[in-house]
Amino acid sequence: MKDRLGRAELAALVVFLALLVWAPFPLGSNRAWAWTLLEAGLFLAAALWTIGWMQRRHGSLAVVRAAWPAFALLGAWLAYLALHWTPLPAGLVRALSPQAAAVHALAVPYAATHQASTWITLSIDPNASFIFWLKSCAYAIAFFLTLALAHTRERARLIALTLVLSGLAQAVYGGLMHLSGFDLELFGTKIPHGSQASGGFVNRNHLAGFLEITLALGIGLMVGSLRETGRRSWRQFWRDMAALLLSPKAPLRLVLVAMVIALVMTRSRMGNTAFFASLLIAGGVALTLSRHATRSTVILIASLIAIDILVIGSWFGVEKTMQRIEQTTVGDVELREDPSVYALEMVRDYPLFGAGPGTFYTAFTRYRGPDIRAFFDQAHNDYMQFLVETGALGAALAGGLALMGLVLAVLALSRRRDPLARGFAFAVLMGVSSIAIHCTVDFNLLQIPANALAFMVLLAYGWIALYLER
Fold first, then answer.
1. Which tens digits make up the pLDDT trace of 115-172?
2. Do residues 82 and 97 both lie within one domain?
3. Counts for the chain of helices (H) and strands (E), in that order
4. 114 and 14 part of one domain
């Protein structure tokens, strides 16, 4: 196998791993220049891998072939997005999305929009939709590269561990800046480190979302490294836990501790709630489907996290996070809900195709109520924003990919005996569940490229968990 691998394939791996570490630092890559660099890096990695493929010096593509349903869905998603910024006959746009045609008529003389020769777009802002499409192409490439490069168990571990270490870098940086109380200006944006841990992100909730994904992968790696035994007594259980803390797995355990501390320091209410809720969900499902694995595997991980909260968390302000949750007022909830409530009218006006990918900040100005004084360029609810921007068809395509990842994780937990595969399945189930909960009140995917990249890598591990060779 090593003889078959060429320098181009190795270079693609190096570029891809470097991007996983780099992406969160420049404000979550949520600036035009930052996401442009991220896209260019992913396109470069894909080009390098293609060179290796043309030279027939690459690893096994068994998992890539098995994942053809995901690539079919991604292809449909990208084609659907491209349809929004592609000029179409005005009559066709009026038939598909009357409201979009009406908006274009505001900028173009009304008579011109009714001529057969006039071409307009389904999106009310085709430039924003084109930018969104380019990002989506990059995310699809990241999904492919994860499957293509993780063709061995060692490669799968390496990519997952790199993303975990990226989370550790954000945890250490965010935690130290928060403890110092110094509000640093990063890339022209002032980040309030003194009141919260934000890492390289502007918003603490975005760091929390990134840590949710990387923590899930880290816990999955630990689950995959545990040896499976039969039923054990409590004495044997605690003996094994002590052995774990003294074993080579201890560094990974310390990494998880640091990341949990940073998650607590973000003071993100839904971030912390979603993480621990997803841990319970994944643990419950794994216990239910544990025909081959012992229950002590999940119990061990859950107990270690509990120790983090009860002991370590108490040193680093877990009570402050709990206090924020307890002091959440009706006004706080309404502040997050109001954009989504007013956005319901937008969904009625753009039911099937939406206003266009990336157009929420443009479309929302016509629908906001007089009680909303702040400027909202996002809906603070990824589900609602998907509906507004891409319509019911787009939301179904995007949601289908995430749902597919959950189904694969459940199947892997049910069918596979391989501890590493089960660990990856646990990570996918936990990470997707956590982000699914968190996205009800925040935007962690649509406008935060670093989080979207990590999420696509996580989804790829659903296929790896089910089809990676033992």
1. 444 889 999 999 999 999 999 999 999 999 999 999 999 999 999 999 999 999 999 9
2. no
3. 21, 4
4. no
CB 357 within 8 A of CB 78: no
Q: Which of 460, 469, 417 is nearest to 1 (CA)?
A: 469
- How many Å apart are CA 470 and CA 467, to the nearest integer? 9
Helical axes 295-307 vs 269-288, angle rounded to 10°: 160
CA pair distance 250, 154, nearest whole angstrom: 19
pLDDT digits (tens, 9 = 90+) for 57-116: 878 899 999 999 999 999 999 999 999 999 999 889 999 988 988 888 877 655 444 544
The count of structural domains within the chain is 2
46 and 111 fall within a common domain: no
Which residues constitute the domain of residue 111? 88-120
130: Cβ–Cβ under 8 A, 6 or more apart, which residues?
85
Instruction: Say how far apart CA 348 and CA 366 lie, in whole Å.
Output: 14
> Could you tell me which residue, 182 or 49, shows the higher pLDDT?
49
Q: Which of 413, 442, 65, 68 is nearest to 273 (CA)?
A: 442
Phi/psi of residue 446, nearest 5 degrees = -60, -40
215 and 107 in one domain? no
pTM score:
0.88
Q: Residue 165's pLDDT is what?
A: 96
Q: Give the C-alpha separation, 247 to 127, whole Å.
A: 54
Residue 358's CB is within 10 A of a number of other CB atoms, namely 26
Residues 37 and 93 in one domain: no
Same domain, 285 and 382: yes
What value, to the nearest 5°, has the Cα angle with vertex 54 and ends 49 and 56?
90
For residue range 229-256, list pLDDT tens digits in order: 555 566 666 676 666 666 666 788 888 8
Residue for token pair 């990336």: 358
